[in-house]
# Entry
Amino acid sequence: MASSPNPHPNAHPLAGAYSNAFQIAAQLDARAARTLPEVTATVQHYAMLLETRIKAKASGRPGPNAPTGDYRRSWTHEVSTDGLSVTAVVGTNKPQARRLEYGFVGADSLGRIYNQPPYPHVGPAVEEIRPLFIAALGDTIDDDS
# Structure
């Protein structure tokens, strides 16, 4: 593209300002289109690993006891893509999840008094999977193929 005067106050009078913004945008779009399926697969894999790790940690101390396995089975993951973003949600529909993870002290809605200790199982699982996921995602994005 033709050079226009450089607007920077310290620029040399002969220095021009060049713009290849359209070329850069096209290259970024092409790279995103190539990378999106790989990123989606990576997110899918690590969402499944996180779900599995949470289930394992929800199978007895130091996490919560799981006498029937119902709570453990309730954990699921879902991956979605929207345009150029990938989102994974790992969760459960069981109401006891928050109390098991963080504990509960005080009266519930029926007036019963609790001093329930926390049995962390989600946080520790996330902390185990996080560095692996970040490294794998970095490898996927850095891949110049």
